[in-house]
Amino acid sequence: MAVTDILARLRAADQDPAVRLPGEVGIWIFILGDMAVFGLFFTVFVYERDDHPDLFEASRDTLNITLGTLNTLLLLTGSLFVVRGLNAVKDGRSRVARRWLAGAIVTGLAFAVDKVVEYADQAQAGHGISTNHFYMYFYMYTAIHLTHLAIGVCALIYMRGLAGRPELTVRHVRNLENGASYWHMVDLLWIVLFALLYLMG
Amino acid sequence: MNRRAQIIAAWCGPAICVIFSIGALGLARFIPPEISPTASAAHAQSIMIHGSGRIRVGLTFMLIGMSIMPAWGTVVAAQLRGSEGRFGVLSYIQIASIGVGSALACAGCVVWAAGAYRPGQLSPEFSRYAVDLGWHFFLWAWEPFSVWAIAMGMAILGSGNTVYPRWSAYVCFWTAFLFSAATGLTFLKEGVFAYNGLLTLWMVMSVFFVWIIVTSYLTIRNVQGGRFHTFHDPDAPAGPNPDDEVAVRSRDLPVAPLTNAG
Amino acid sequence: MSARWDRLTAVWGTLMAATLASWAIGTQHGHDHDVRRLATVGVIIVAFAKVHLVGRHFMDLRGAPVLLKIAFTGWVVGVPATLVTIHLLRS
After folding, report:
1. Which of A43, A140, A172 to mutate to test binding with chain B, by most B CBs within 10 Å of its CB?
2. Which of A186, A64, A81, A181 is nearest to A127 (CA)?
3. Is C53 exposed, middle or buried, given 0-12, 13-18 or 19+ CB atoms closer than 10 A?
C-alpha cells in the first residue's frame, strides 16, 4: 500500500463523526513533544544505570518506596477525579464538577507535600544532586516533573473556576479538555518515573 | 518598506541558526565543548592559548547570531501586537524579555572572548573561570527565554487563530518548559545535566532552534500573506516623494532602442 | 451514566492494584541476578501498561483521531521496547 493510500485512509477515518480529538491539536503537540523528551530522559537513565548497577542500586535503596507509591496512588486518583469532574461538567452538574476538581487539586498539592518531605529526608541524609549520578537523575527528573505538576495544579484551579460558570462556550470546554489532558500527562510521566527511579532493581 | 523590514527580521531566525552554528560548532568549538566542566584548569588554559584566534573569531559569529535575536523576536511581537489592543502587555513582555535574554547570551560570548584575550597571561584558574562564567551567562540563565516564549504563546492564544495557528502557541510552551533542564548546570560538573551534557546543552539548543525555525516559517508566511502595512502619513504634503525625482540621468543611456544600422 | 462509572472505576482499581503490587515487589530484595533482571523488565512493562490505560480511558484516546492514537501507541510500545533492549543487552 502506498503512503498516499495510508494517508487517505487515515484522513477518512478522522472524518468519522464518532472520532473526536480531546482538547485541541496544539495541546497534543505539546503533550507528545513533552513525552518524546521524557522518553529521552528515560533512555538516558536506563543506559547509564547499567554502567553502574551497584551504585544505582545502593542509592535506590535509600529512597522511600512507600512515599513514592503514595505519590503514584495520589496522581492516579487525581486523574480519576479529573475525568469525573469533566464528565460532570458535560452533564451540566457544575457543583459536582467543582467538587471533583477540588479533590484533584488536593491530590496534586498532597503530591507536592510528599515530594518536599522526600527531598528533606534525602537532604538530611546528605544526599544532594551532585552526590552521584543516581541522585542527579532523581533530583533533576523529579524537579522537572514537579514543575509540570505545579503548572497542572494552576490549570486545575482555573478549570474549577470555569466549571462554576453558568454557561460554557466551546472555547471553555476546549480549555477544560486541554487542562485535563495535560493533567493526565503529568500522571503518566510520573508512572514511568516511579518505575525507573524507585522500582527498577 | 514595512513588508521588507518584517521579512528581513523574520529571516534573522534561520540566520541566527546558521551564523551561530558557524561560530559555535566550526570556529570557537564551544559546541561540543572542548573544555568540559571536569577538565583541569591547565587544560582550559591550554585550549584558550592554542585556540585563542579561532575562538575569538568564532565568538564574534556567535555574538552576531545572538545579537540579531531581538530583531527576530520583535517581528513576532509586532505581528501579534495588533490583536492585543491598547494595553499590549504581552507584546511588551516579549520585547523586554528578548532584550534581557539576548543580552545574557551575548554576555556569555563576551566573557569567553575576554578569556581568550591574553593568551598565556591568564592563570589556569582564571581561564577555567572564564569558561564556567560564560556557560552560566549563556545557558544557565534560561529564564528570560522562557518568559519570552510563554508571553508569545499566550499572545498567540489570545489572538484566536487570526495571526499564528493556535498549535504554534503550544510549541512555545513546550520550548519554555524544556529550557528548564538547564537549571542543573550550576549544580553539576559531569553527566547529562552538566554544561556539556546531552539534556542541558544538546536538548535545550535543539528545542530552541526547532522553535526558531517553526516560528520563522509561520512569520514569513504571515507577511507574504499580507500581514504588513504600507506607510501613509495623513499630514504629509500630497505629491510625489522628492526622493523619487530623477537626480542623475546618464548621458550614455539610449533614449530610443538601438536599431541595427547595417 | 453508570456504565461510564463502572468502566472508570475498574480502570482506576486496576491501576491502583498494579501500583500496590509493584510496591510489594519493590520493597523485597532478591539477590539473584537473573531474577532481578526479569523483575526489572516486568516493572517497565507494567509501568507502560498503566500508561496505556491512562491514555486510553482517562485521556479518552479510544475515540481520538487515528494519527494521535498511532503516535501515542508508538510511544507506549517504542519507549519500553528501547528501555528493555538496553537493559537486557547491557546488564
Report:
1. A140
2. A64
3. buried
For the beta carbon of residue B75, count every other beta carbon within 10 angstroms: 25
Which CATH number is A62's domain given?
1.20.120.80
Q: Does B182 touch chain A (CB under 8 A)?
A: no
Residue boundaries of the structural domains of chain B: 2-224
Quote the pLDDT of residue B23.
94
Q: What is the pLDDT of residues B82-112, one digit of tens each?
A: 888 889 999 999 999 999 999 999 999 999 9
Q: What is the DSSP string of A133-176?
A: HHHHHHHHHHHHHHHHHHHHHHHHHHHHHHHT-SS--HHHHHHH
pLDDT classification of B261: cutoffs 50, 70, 90: low
Kindly report the nearest CA distance between residue C60 and chain A, in angstroms.
7
Q: What is the pLDDT of residues B232-255, one digit of tens each?
A: 666 666 667 667 777 766 666 666
Rounded to a whole number, what is the distance in angstroms from the first to the last CA of chain A?
A: 44
Which of B167, B198, B207 comes nearest A29 by C-beta?
A: B167
Amino acid of residue B148? W
